[in-house]
Amino acid sequence: MYTMSTTIRIKEDKKQSVQELLAILFLEEGLKLNGQDAVGALIDLGTSHKDELIRQIRETPLEKDFVWKMPKKPVNWGIRDAAENVHKCLYGLERKRE
């Protein structure tokens, strides 16, 4: 069976957690997995326990969410960008320049 490979970037602390989990699985249970198989098993676990996963995600404080760290009022650099395209797609209008 052919499987397509995808690269997923994870933060260094999460990568360390996966390595620690792999070590525990090997030392305590004798299970030898590579990172890909471990992440796959975690995905399977998350999809089979969706309610628990959603609860865990919702418990993340908003202050830790990167969106809340963004400036209250972004600086307009006068460059047409994707934000204006999104606005046009959503509302069908060109956004007025400030």
List the helices and strands and how they pair.
Blueprint: H1 12-29, H2 35-48, H3 50-58, H4 82-91
Query: Given the helix and strand composition, which structural class is it?
Result: mainly alpha
**Please, what is the average pLDDT?**
79
Strand content: under 5%
The 3D shape can be described as elongated
Query: What is the element string, with H for helices and E for strands?
Result: HHHH
Question: What is the count of distinct domains?
Answer: 1
Major sheet description: none
Put simply, the count of helices is 4
Helical amount among residues, as a percent range?
Answer: 40-55%
> Could you list the spans in which at least 5 consecutive residues all have pLDDT below 50?
none
| Integer-rounded radius of gyration | 21 Å
Calculate the terminal CA-CA distance, rounded to whole Å. Answer: 55 Å
Q: Could you give the count of β-strands?
A: 0
